[in-house]
Amino acid sequence: MAINQECEHQGEHLEGYQLREYLSRRFFITDDRAAYPKFYDLELNQNGLMQSNLVGVAMHLGKMSYDDAKQLVRHVYFKTLAPTKLYRPGQPPVINQMGVLFLNSWVAPRFDTETPGDLSAEPFISHLERALGKEAAMYLLDVLSYRLQHPNDKKPHIAFYFYHETGGMGKSLFLETLRNVLGQNSVNTINTTDRLNSMSAAELWNTSWLAIEEAGVAKGSKIYDTIKSYTGADQVDADAKHKGFGKKEIPAMLMLMSNRAPTFIEAHDRRFFVKEWFVQFDETETKDEYFAQYTNWLEKEGGYQAIYQYLINHQVTQDIRKVPVTREKEMAMDMSCNPVVTEIKDYLEDNEKYWCFNIECFDEIFDKHRVNSNQRKHLLVEAGLVKDDSRYRINNNRYRLWVREGVYTKGIGSATAAFYNGRDDLLNEVTLISHSG
Description:
GO terms for molecular function: ATP binding. Pfam families: DUF5906. This is DUF5906 domain-containing protein. Helix 5 packs across helix 6. The chain folds into three domains: about 80 residues; about 210 residues, P-loop containing nucleotide triphosphate hydrolases (Rossmann fold); about 90 residues, Arc Repressor Mutant, subunit A, CATH 1.10.10. The chain has a five-stranded parallel β-sheet with strand order 7-8-11-6-12. It has a four-stranded mixed β-sheet with strand order 14-15-13-19, covered by helices on one side. It has a three-stranded antiparallel β-sheet with strand order 1-2-3. The protein is built from 15 helices and 19 strands. About 0% of the residues have low confidence.
């Protein structure tokens, strides 16, 4: 029974022990470092309350004077919440984990999820089949069902990328549908990828789904590295602003929406499901009429309830961790295989004993493909090299170097040592210098 419902059940007002019990289960201390602690209100989802606010609640519910309410609040034992929130779908608002209390950031859907519904989810299924095709729609439905049926299991390390060159195909409507079906706090939506590299990025992933409406991802970029890392992990070391360094849970699966086909999908990728999202219309119907009828079904004819009941009861038969290779994904992987990058990677494999290179080492490859000077650094980064802006003395000359990812250097007396994958050697011994051109 919810706290406010319990209060109503007790009658018009609460007295003595009942009121103290009610207050102790509704309010929790979040900060007791100052003389006056701050409280969180579980009922109103409000943080930063002062003791005087609690006195006001006691006066209202207990029909008592200010002095009596203040005296009563002083005798209530308030528990303390940990500063970090947990995301635990289907569990109580406050999670007791080995004696430590955490606020559960999950919020249940607004409709009744306990009562089985007899509504059909056919309009939703048909809509997805129109937009994606039958096989792709079924894979998406399987993943959504698995995620809803096993909300606290470790997430499948996969991500979705949906695109179409023009808008108005219902991608945003689909995200809004998920929020209404799964619960508003179960789907975090951000407009662009910029926030993924912020100090509080880990908090965005503390949900079931993270959706980006206008995804702009470049292969080899910091954003791409972040997406790969967070998609393939369940926890991350994060330094959230003003909250300190520590392990953060990142249970969210990623869903990217875009107006462009992806250009960052690597060959043999096993992480991304890529599909064009394009709704086909019959000759006798218009787009506006179609979406008006579909939205009416969602909002006024029990569509959200029907979708929830379908997903919670749908039997998942395929291994959702084996991401199907769609035609769109094959095209994306072919586009990402730049022949220059491939040759640079081959060069690095042929010279495995070297960890550092001057840029002239790659002149022959660049000249062969007529790569201009502005493009060269981007291609080296895409091949897995990192530019070291320091100047090093090698064979009586000074060079700026491109190094394999993970290499770092350290001065030892008059010499410089290089460290890579647990090994170390003198920089001179692991650096390849070319004087071509």
